[in-house]
């Protein structure tokens, strides 16, 4: 289990013993990290090992743990046979540090440097197109910016969810399973391990634990339930809620994060479980109670003041983006369009022309290679950029019209370079003030969001189901 030690900010040495993650402190400046990108053999569970691409030799990769206000410096070397880059998902960083505008060629070293201005649960992953291929191979890791109150919990645990499409020998299967439009796995993992290899959470009665869930799957939605306890949800995508809420189940679309408190109210010597609705695929986290009891730990969480944008409920959207899919684009056309698809990403960096993926039809007959996904009827690179002014509020209506195919498709939309307020769901104000960087838009429904761009440059807006992003559901926001 990835657990964050109290009060320690450090350059990280990560070792893996029996599925658990252990940290030790180096004699180095806080907030300086070295990441080696390389291929390794990874054991998902006893008897099932596969080759992965990794940040530092593990999946998920090396956790980066810092505090608000730190200047973070990350350096490393790309030891993969392919070019890559790193995107700092959810963090507001200068445009030339965001990631997609960089290309790190095989054998080259890289350096990133930026200041973190917000605490919360974030993550980093490859954004080199086709993005699905690299993230699906394991190029992702948690990025945790600690708040002072985080040290007051009995335990602070990071739980990264993923899925893998493998044969019985651990070989990667290509394409998609029969009837699927997206790449879903047949093995699901927590911190790179599938049950029974998932490391248990260890509680003592009276404790209060913080759990940070990250969905790193390329397409799978994970609904996680807890037995004998309640989640108290405090953060969405790293942003604190003005009104936390209790539930026994949470749902995360690709790219989303949820932080929740769990009070240790179970019985000594008993075991409970946090598990997926598809627990037979591998996401099953035991909660084991050890003997002994501590004085009840109260919640250190202090809800923030509201930062709801005044008057935003009744404002007409500045842009309406209709999300859809079509089946009339051939693989030849996909390749032709993508070959001429450079994208300026600000800061003097031009995104290299990268191939749109043509997901191959495997022996079970994938339809994915026949699909393209659209915004207002166009696929990237032909989508229209959104021109916005710096420091001015922008309201966007995200309308999912993707209801005509046999599989009605949700679209979790992610925006780089900012966080946004959820203004309405089908015209209805949400139950509580919520800020995010990724929001699921269900098929046939719409979501209104509002945000302010504070850094100039060209920023991505895309579906975080990576088949959809690579297949065209992406545009840019140009902030000047």
Question: Topology of this structure?
Answer:
Blueprint: E1 2-3, E2 12-17, E3 20-25, E4 32-45, E5 48-55, E6 64-67, E7 71-78, E8 87-89, E9 109-115, E10 120-125, H1 131-136, E11 140-146, E12 155-164, E13 187-190, E14 201-205, E15 208-215, E16 222-226, E17 231-236, E18 239-247, E19 249-252, E20 257-263, E21 271-276, E22 284-293, E23 319-326, H2 331-338, E24 343-344, E25 350-351, E26 372-375, E27 386-388, E28 393-400, E29 411-415, E30 420-425, E31 435-436, E32 438-441, E33 446-452, E34 457-463, H3 466-470, E35 474-479
Parallel strand pairs: 4-7, 6-11, 12-15, 14-22, 23-28, 27-35
Antiparallel strand pairs: 1-12, 2-3, 4-5, 7-9, 8-10, 10-11, 12-13, 15-20, 16-19, 16-21, 17-18, 17-20, 21-22, 23-26, 24-25, 28-33, 29-32, 29-34, 30-31, 30-33, 34-35
In short:
The chain is mostly beta strands and 480 residues long. 4% of the residues lie in helices and 44% in strands. It folds into three domains: 149 residues, Cupredoxins -  blue copper proteins (Immunoglobulin-like, Sandwich), CATH 2.60.40; 139 residues, Immunoglobulin-like (Sandwich); 161 residues, Immunoglobulin-like.
């Amino acid at each position: 289990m990835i657990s964050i030690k109290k009060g320690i900010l450090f350059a990280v040495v990560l070792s893996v013993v029996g599925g658990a993650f252990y940290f030790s402190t180096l004699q180095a400046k806080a907030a300086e990290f070295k990441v080696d990108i390389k291929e390794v053999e990874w054991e998902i569970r006893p008897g099932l090992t596969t080759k992965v691409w990794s940040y530092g030799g593990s999946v998920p990769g090396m956790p980066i743990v810092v505090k608000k206000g730190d200047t973070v410096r990350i350096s490393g070397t790309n030891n993969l046979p392919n070019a890559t880059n790193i995107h700092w998902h959810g963090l507001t960083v200068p445009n030339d540090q965001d990631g997609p505008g960089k290309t790190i060629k095989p054998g080259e070293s890289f350096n990133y440097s930026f200041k973190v201005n917000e605490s919360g649960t974030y993550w980093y992953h490859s954004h080199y197109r086709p993005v699905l291929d690299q993230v699906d191979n394991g190029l992702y890791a948690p990025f945790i910016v600690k708040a002072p109150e985080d040290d007051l919990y009995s335990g602070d645990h990071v739980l990264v969810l993923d899925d893998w499409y493998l044969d019985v020998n651990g070989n990667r299967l290509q394409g998609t399973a029969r009837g699927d439009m997206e790449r879903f796995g047949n093995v699901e993992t927590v911190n790179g391990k599938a049950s029974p290899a998932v490391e248990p959470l260890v509680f003592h009665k009276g404790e209060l634990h913080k759990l940070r869930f990250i969905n790193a799957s390329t397409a799978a939605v994970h609904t996680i339930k807890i037995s004998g306890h309640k989640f108290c949800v405090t953060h969405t995508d790293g942003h604190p809620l003005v009104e936390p809420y209790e539930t026994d189940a949470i749902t995360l679309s690709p790219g989303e994060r949820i932080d929740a408190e769990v009070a240790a109210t179970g019985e000594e010597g008993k075991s409970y479980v946090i598990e997926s609705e598809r627990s037979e695929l591998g996401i099953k986290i035991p909660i084991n109670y050890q003997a002994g009891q501590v004085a009840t730990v109260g919640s250190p969480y202090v809800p923030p003041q509201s930062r709801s944008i005044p008057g935003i409920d009744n404002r007409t959207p500045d842009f309406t983006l209709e999300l859809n899919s079509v089946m009339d684009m051939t693989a030849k056309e996909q390749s032709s369009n993508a070959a001429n698809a450079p994208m300026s990403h600000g800061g003097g960096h031009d995104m290299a022309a990268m191939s749109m993926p043509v997901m191959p039809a495997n022996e079970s007959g994938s339809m994915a290679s026949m699909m393209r996904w659209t915004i207002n009827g166009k696929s990237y690179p032909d989508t229209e950029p959104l021109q916005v002014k710096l420091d001015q509020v922008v309201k966007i209506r995200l309308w999912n019209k993707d209801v005509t195919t046999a599989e009605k498709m949700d679209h979790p939309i992610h925006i780089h370079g900012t966080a946004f307020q959820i203004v309405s769901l089908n015209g209805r104000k949400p139950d509580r003030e919520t800020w995010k960087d990724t929001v699921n838009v269900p098929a046939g429904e719409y979501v209104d969001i509002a945000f302010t761009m504070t850094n100039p440059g060209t920023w991505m807006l895309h579906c975080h189901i990576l088949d959809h992003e690579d297949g065209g559901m992406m545009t840019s926001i140009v902030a000047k």
